[in-house]
Amino acid sequence: MRIIKANGIRMHIRIDGSPDGFPVLFSNSLGTDLRVWDALLPHLPDGLRFIRYDTRGHGLTDAPDAPYFMGDLVQDAAAILDTLGIGQAMMVGLSIGGMIAQGLAAERPDLLKAAVLMDTAARIGNEQIWEDRVRAVREGGIASLEESILERWFSRPFHENNADELAGWRHMLCRTPVEGYVGCSQAIAETDLFDSTARLSLPVLAIAGAEDGSTPPDLVAETASLIAGSRFEVIRKAGHLPCVEQPLETAALITAFMQENGIV
Fold it and tell me: DSSP states of 6-63 as a string?
């Protein structure tokens, strides 16, 4: 376990791979923690430095009182790289993590060489949807929404054939601090990145799970279309977390992208 203090909070980070390798920063989705990348990392190229962290309000990172703002979350990611003395990295962001990656690329272009935007968008949902979700969590806890969330996260075959693993993801979701879940939901609600994302010029790979019920492929493709030169790929037999359901295919797409851009 490694805890660093940055941007005014204690953040849980984990560093794997080669200490001197090219740095890759991973940002998790709403309701998960850095373990969401466990199945993916072994299939990525050797010689990279993998930096994972628990988003504000998730995992072992501090969960200050809501509301949070996207600027807070972007500054958290920047603070990690600044604290580690990293000037150029590739960022892989999932869902809200992909929004953070878009924001970081816009606000601190000095920190990122490339980005992978996974099951995310420049805007996700609308304020009313997120207000309703926040109200439900405040009144009944995250468990009151767990079935609908897990249905969007995973494909039907995963639900049918992976009961034990699904239970683990259910526990991770429901053990997310309420303030963290609410705070990040409010950050998503107020975020519209269309203008800043359309101005990005770094290499970008956008990935969507074909059966994603949270950020469907068309939504991800729309965001990819804003970025000149970006690539968009769909992963079959995967929902909102393709890095969990299809780690080999996800890793193959990311590896090819890194090769194309001189990272490996």
Answer: ETTEEEEEEEEE-TTSEEEEEEPPTT--GGGGTTTGGGSPTTEEEEEE--TTSTTS--
